[in-house]
Amino acid sequence: MDPNLRPAFAYTVIYVKDVAESVAFYASAFGYNVRRLDESHRWGELESGETTIAFTPKHQRETDEITGAVKEPASSEKQRSQMEVCLAYEDVDAAYQRAVEKGAVPVSPPEPREWGQKVGYVRDIDGIVVRLGSYVKPQ
């Protein structure tokens, strides 16, 4: 394959109600440093390694007019959006506890899974499911 056509995975964009509030929440609840929050509060980024976690409002020209409106799940707690944010930690129990203490809604406490990972789930302030898991050891 032509190396000029091999992409780097650059961003995951999360559409939220309030960019500044979500950036502050993710920094506090999940331990990220804020890379950028523009003055208009229409774009925010967290330092998250090679891939950037970015936030932008649910309703703006780019989402509504060009690519379509953001579809939200119904209000039922048993429904979720078409994406999930997955974060890896050395100490999943401590990460889960901190997230809940900082305002994440508990869904399922960390427990060992059959594939060798310890996983817990919370919801962020926009209702998005966030998976907190241990690192998966390569086989």
Automatic annotation (TrEMBL):
Domain of life: Eukaryota
Domain VOC per the UniProt entry, residue ranges: 8-135
Stretches of the chain forming a coiled coil according to its record: none
Protein name: VOC domain-containing protein
Native source organism of the sequence: Dioscorea zingiberensis
